[in-house]
Design brief:
alpha/beta; Alpha-D-Glucose-1,6-Bisphosphate, Chain A, domain 3; 5-stranded mixed β-sheet
Length: about 450
C-alpha cells in the first residue's frame, strides 16, 4: 500500500481526499491509533466535509477490528469531541482538515486529558501504518451519542449570562459552529444574527479559514451590531470583529478576555513566538509572567496545563481558558469574550483602542512539504552568521531594535510563512521585502 508519509504532521494527519487519504488508508490509521493509544474505548467525531462520512466509517472500522469500542458523536464542532473525550477520560479522533480547502481531510488525535498528540505520537501512528500489519481482535462495539446538548449546558454553566443584550453576528462559514454557537449565544442572552449557519462541506459562501479577506459578508452585516464572530470549519479557530468592522488580532481578543479573567484566575500567560509584542505589554499590565513557546495549539495547551497558566493564545486564533476547559475551544472562548464585553459598559472599539497597534504582516510562500524544513534549516545557519539576535526555538526569528521577523515552515500545509512586526509601515515593508527575498532565493537554491 503506497502511503504519502508527509500526511503525518506535527499536529495531525492531513491529505487530499482520494489522492493521499483514502478509505483504505484511513482504516489503517484507525487501527494504528487503536493498537497504540486506545485501552478500551475511543471517542470519534467529524466536521462537515463531504468526504467525512466514508472516512469516519473506515476509521471506526480500523478501531473496532482491533477490538476497541467507539463512541460516535457524528458531525460536531471539534470542541464538542474534545469535551466528551475529556469528560470520559478516553482518547479521541476527530476527522477534519480544519481551515484547509474542501478537497482536504484528515484526523486530529487527542488524549483523554484534552491535549492533542505531539509529533512523536503522530509519527508512531505513521510508522505502524507503514508496516502494513493491522492488529485484529474480537470486534469492538459502536455507540452513537448526541454530544452537543451536554457540551452547551456545560459551557453556559461556566461562562454565564450576558450583562447587556448585545447584538452579535455569528459567521459560521457553513462549518460545524452553526450546530451550537448561535444557540449558545441566544441562551446566554444575546440577540443573534447567524451567517452561513447550515453545515455544508463544499463551503459555498467562504473558505473554511477565518482570514479577514474572506470575512466580507460579516463586515457588511455589522451595521448596528456590537460584536462579530467567525469560525473555521471545525470551530477551533475564531476571529472577532468590533462594531466598526475592524478585525481584532488574537492579541486584542486576549486583552478583552484577560480583562475579566485575571480578576478570578491565577497563573501566567502562554503565547507562541508568532504573537505580537503587545502580548508582553498586556501581561505586564495585568502583572502576569508570559511564556513564549513553539507554534502549535497542542504545545500551547500542554504548556497552559504544565505551568498552571490562566490563559493561552496562538497567533492562528486558538485560545485556551483552562477554567472552562483544559484545552482550546473557539466557541467557548468567543462566548466568554462576548460576555466580558456585555458586562464592561464599553464598546468593543473603545477597549481595542486602549492598546497601541503596531503594524504586522504575514506572507505565505509555497514550498513542497519534502523540502520546506530543509529550506528553513539552511536559513537558520545563514542568518545566525549575518545577524546578532537570532532565535531558533521554532523556525528562525531575527529581532531588531525596531521590529522582528519570523520565518517558519507550516506543519499543516506545503508553505513557509514570513511574519514581521515593526514600529511603522516603512520599516515593516523593508523587513518583509528583505526576508521574502532571502526565502525565495533559498527555495530556488534547494
Amino acid at each position: 500500500m503506497g502511503i504519502n508519509k508527509s500526511m503525518f504532521r506535527a499536529y495531525d494527519v492531513r491529505g487530499v481526499y482520494g489522492r493521499d487519504l483514502t478509505e483504505n488508508v484511513m482504516e489503517h490509521i484507525g487501527n494504528a491509533f487503536a493498537s497504540g493509544f486506545v485501552k478500551d474505548t475511543a471517542v470519534v467525531g467529524m466536521d462537515g466535509r463531504v468526504s467525512g462520512p466514508s472516512l469516519k466509517k473506515s476509521l471506526i472500522g480500523g478501531l473496532t477490528k482491533a477490538g476497541k469500542n467507539v463512541i460516535d458523536l457524528g458531525v460536531v464542532p471539534r470542541g464538542v469531541c474534545l469535551f466528551w473525550s475529556w469528560k470520559k477520560g478516553k482518547p479521541s479522533a476527530y476527522i477534519t482538515a480544519s481551515h484547509l480547502t474542501k478537497e482536504w481531510n484528515g484526523v486530529k488525535f487527542a488524549h483523554g486529558n484534552g491535549v492533542e498528540f505531539f509529533e512523536e505520537e503522530n509519527y508512531k501512528i505513521r510508522d505502524a501504518v507503514l508496516k502494513g500489519k493491522p492488529v485484529t481482535s474480537n470486534e469492538g462495539s459502536v455507540k452513537s451519542e448526541q454530544g452537543i446538548g451536554a457540551y452547551a449546558d456545560y459551557v453556559l454553566s461556566k461562562v454565564g449570562r450576558a450583562g447587556r443584550k448585545l447584538k452579535v453576528v455569528v459567521d459560521c462559514g457553513n462549518g460545524t459552529g452553526g450546530l451550537v454557537a448561535p444557540l449558545l449565544f441566544k441562551k446566554s442572552g444575546f440577540e443573534v444574527r447567524t451567517l452561513f449557519g447550515e453545515v455544508d462541506g463544499n463551503f459555498p459562501n467562504r473558505p473554511s479559514e477565518v482570514d479577514e479577506k474572506y470575512l466580507g459578508a460579516l463586515k457588511k452585516a455589522m451595521g448596528g451590531a456590537d460584536i462579530g464572530i467567525a469560525y473555521d470549519g471545525d470551530s477551533d479557530r475564531v476571529s472577532i470583529m468590533d462594531e466598526r468592522g475592524r478585525m481584532l488580532g488574537p492579541e486584542f481578543t486576549s486583552y478583552l478576555i484577560l480583562s475579566e479573567l485575571v480578576k478570578k484566575e491565577k497563573g501566567p500567560i502562554v503565547a507562541n513566538v508568532e504573537c505580537l509584542k503587545i502580548m508582553d505589554e498586556i501581561a505586564g499590565k495585568y502583572g502576569r509572567k508570559i511564556y513564549r513557546i513553539r507554534v502549535g495549539h497542542s504545545f500551547m495547551v500542554h504548556d497552559v496545563n504544565k505551568r498552571g497558566a490562566c490563559f493561552g493564545v496562538e497567533r492562528s486564533g486558538h485560545f485556551c481558558i483552562p477554567s472552562i476547559f483544559p484545552m482550546d475551544d473557539g466557541i467557548a472562548a468567543s462566548l466568554y469574550a462576548a460576555v466580558v464585553l456585555s458586562k464592561s459598559g464599553k464598546k468593543l472599539s473603545e477597549i481595542v483602542d486602549e492598546l497601541p497597534d503596531y503594524p504586522f504582516r504575514r506572507e505565505k510562500v509555497k514550498c513542497p512539504d519534502e523540502k520546506k524544513f530543509m529550506v528553513v534549516d539552511n536559513l537558520k545557519k545563514k542568518l545566525k552568521k549575518r545577524y546578532e539576535k537570532v532565535n531558533t526555538i521554532d523556525g528562525v526569528r531575527v529581532d531588531f531594535d525596531y521590529g522582528w521577523v519570523l520565518i517558519r515552515a507550516s506543519n499543516t500545509e506545503p508553505i513557509i510563512r514570513v511574519s514581521a512586526e515593526a514600529d511603522n509601515m516603512k520599516k515593516l515593508n523593508e523587513l518583509t521585502k528583505r526576508f521574502l527575498g532571502l526565502l525565495n532565493e533559498e527555495i530556488k537554491a534547494s
